[in-house]
């Protein structure tokens, strides 16, 4: 069971990103402030849930959250500042959009660039430990998926409607055959068609 709070004195916001390991499209991030006693038996790391469950939970999160915001950093910016900094920037943008300023940020992962004067706590695997981070992971993932489905209409050959820009064999093969689109991250190198290939940022 996930936890509702990291502490009980400050207003805390969970933050997470989606799309860090993709070859195309933006990285999205979300920040979510939930009620202190919020619980949900299905809410978990978005990667552990089906697409149908993610979208159902998104509606519940948006209805019940005290505040939430979603932001992105596009592929051009990713190439300029690298994907790690772009992930942090997307979180910063989401935090800045919240109508209520949090007093503590719960960050999924082990690194973060400090956001102005708000203290933060990095939590490895946080999207499987705290409801607010899990909620942020679901919003970031579903909003990014919506965006990728939209741009897939203009470039159907890359199958972004299903792979969402991740480095599937079909996606990599299409890049090697016909090249990049304006949505591709040019600093992410496609080196092979091996099933287990990891994305290499250059």
Automatic annotation (TrEMBL):
It comes from the Bacteria. Residues 10-200 form the RNase H type-2 domain. A divalent metal cation binds at residues 16-17, 108. Keywords: Cytoplasm, Endonuclease, Hydrolase, Manganese, Metal-binding, Nuclease. Manganese or magnesium. Binds 1 divalent metal ion per monomer in the absence of substrate. May bind a second metal ion after substrate binding. One of its GO terms (molecular function) is RNA-DNA hybrid ribonuclease activity. Pfam families: RNase_HII. Its cofactor is Mg(2+); Mn(2+). Belongs to the RNase HII family. Endonuclease that specifically degrades the RNA of RNA-DNA hybrids. This is Ribonuclease HII. It comes from Mucilaginibacter calamicampi. The lineage of its organism: Bacteria, Pseudomonadati, Bacteroidota, Sphingobacteriia, Sphingobacteriales.
């Amino acid at each position: 069971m996930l936890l509702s709070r990291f502490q009980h004195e400050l207003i805390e916001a969970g933050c997470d990103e989606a799309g860090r390991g993709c070859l195309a499209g933006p990285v999205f991030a979300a920040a979510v402030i939930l009620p202190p006693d919020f619980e949900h038996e299905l809410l978990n790391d978005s990667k552990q849930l089906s697409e149908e469950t993610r979208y159902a939970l998104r509606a519940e999160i948006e209805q019940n959250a005290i505040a939430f915001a979603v932001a992105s950093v596009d592929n051009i910016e990713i190439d300029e500042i690298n994907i790690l900094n772009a992930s942090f920037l997307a979180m910063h943008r989401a935090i800045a959009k919240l109508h209520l300023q949090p007093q503590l940020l719960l960050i999924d992962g082990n690194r973060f660039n400090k956001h102005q004067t708000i203290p933060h706590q990095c939590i490895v695997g946080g999207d499987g430990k705290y409801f607010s981070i899990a909620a942020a992971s679901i919003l970031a993932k579903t909003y990014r998926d919506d965006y990728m489905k939209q741009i897939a209409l203009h470039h159907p050959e890359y199958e972004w409607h299903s792979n969402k820009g991740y480095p599937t064999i079909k996606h990599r093969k299409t890049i090697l055959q016909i090249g990049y689109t304006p949505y591709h991250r040019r600093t992410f190198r496609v080196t092979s068609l091996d099933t287990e290939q990891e994305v290499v940022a250059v």
